[in-house]
Every structure is written in structure tokens, then in C-alpha cells.
Amino acid sequence: MSKVPAKPKPDKFMGMPLGDTGEVDSDSESSNNSSSDEEDLKLPKKKPILSLEDLERAGYKSGPSVIHIKAQSESEPQNWNWSNGRSAKAQEDGDDGETRAATREAVTKAMEESALHSVKAMEHAAKLQEEARLERLEAKQARAAKDKLLSFNQKEKRKRDAGQTSRGKNYVEESKRQARAFGVYSGFD
């Protein structure tokens, strides 16, 4: 079986095929079949000229241009003394009185709306709490009125059914009662 020479990969920078050594070969077929004497003598090869289009085809993009950068203005003398930054900040702000007033007005309006919303939410929550309290009070009064009509044994049965037994200390009886609720009868009571 004879070896088929591998196809060289194109160089991503120049778009030209690379040989085994990484150098640009003009004819990859002839370099693979050349004799060992020619490989020992490597002459410097002429590098191809790259253009902007070649680089763009290889995936490179241009960056920001230096043409549009403003030249430094030497209008005022440079002062290298320490400062508190107030003069520079005043220059950056420009007409800060109007912008500050507009910002203050917008913030005040937003705060007033937020405060109104919070007050309404608090009133609604208080109303719901009061309704829940009244509902619990009515249920408690209805239960008390109903309990007045019941006998002691009936009250205790209701407490047992609700799990509110007053003699919760006797765990054996309580566990037997719970077992009977599920239909388990042990036979010794």
C-alpha cells in the first residue's frame, strides 16, 4: 500500500498552504517529492505581500481609526498642583442648576407616588388583619355558645377528636385510642 501525501492545511493568515515544517510552500507536491539534498539546503523564500483584503478574508477586522481622535488643546496652562476637583466637576456639569432642579422634581414625584402606594398597601393589610381577627372572634363565640349546650363528655369527645385532650400524659391510652381510630384493636385494654 502506498502512502498518499496529505493535503496541506491553508495558513489562516495568508491563505496559502503550509508544508510540514510550517513554512509557506509554493508547490506542496514538489516539496514532498524532493530529494534529501534539497531539504538540507533551505534557501530563504520570498514572503508574499499581504493586503488588507487578505487579512479581512482570514477573519481580521479593523479597529477604531486614529484619524478621528481630537488633538490635544493647549488652551489653558497645565497645573500640576493638587486640587479638590471642584473646578473640573463644575466644568463637567455645565448648567447644573436646571438639571439638578429637574432631577429633584422627578425624584420628589416618584417618592410621593411610592409613598401613596405604600400607604394604600398598609391600609389594605390592616383591613385584612382586622377582618381575620373579627372572623376568628365570631368563630370562637359561636363555639362557646355551642359548648354551653354540650355535656362534659361531649366536650371531651370533641377535644379528643381535635387532638386537644387534657389528659395527654397517658401515652398508652392515647396510642390505643389512635389505633382504634384506624381499626386496630389490640385485645388487652
What structural class is derived from the secondary structure elements?
Answer: mainly alpha
> Major beta sheet, specifics?
none
Query: Radius of gyration, rounded?
Result: 47 Å
Strand content: under 5%
Distance between the termini: 96 Å
Q: What is the helix/strand order?
A: HHHHHHH
Q: Would you tell me the overall average pLDDT?
A: 76
Q: Helix coverage percent of residues?
A: 40-55%
Shape: elongated
List unreliable stretches of 5+ residues.
24-31
Separate helix tally: 7
Describe the model.
It comes from Volvox africanus. Residues 72-86 have a biased composition (Polar residues). Residues 89-101 have a biased composition (Basic and acidic residues). This is Casein kinase substrate phosphoprotein PP28 domain-containing protein. The chain has 189 residues and is mainly alpha-helical. Among the domains are: 1-60, no CATH class; 112-163. 53% of the residues lie in helices and 0% in strands. The chain has helices at 28-32, 36-40, 52-57, 86-93, 96-149, 152-162, 171-181. The radius of gyration is 47 Å and the shape is elongated. The relative contact order is 0.04. Mean pLDDT is 76; it is low at 24-31.
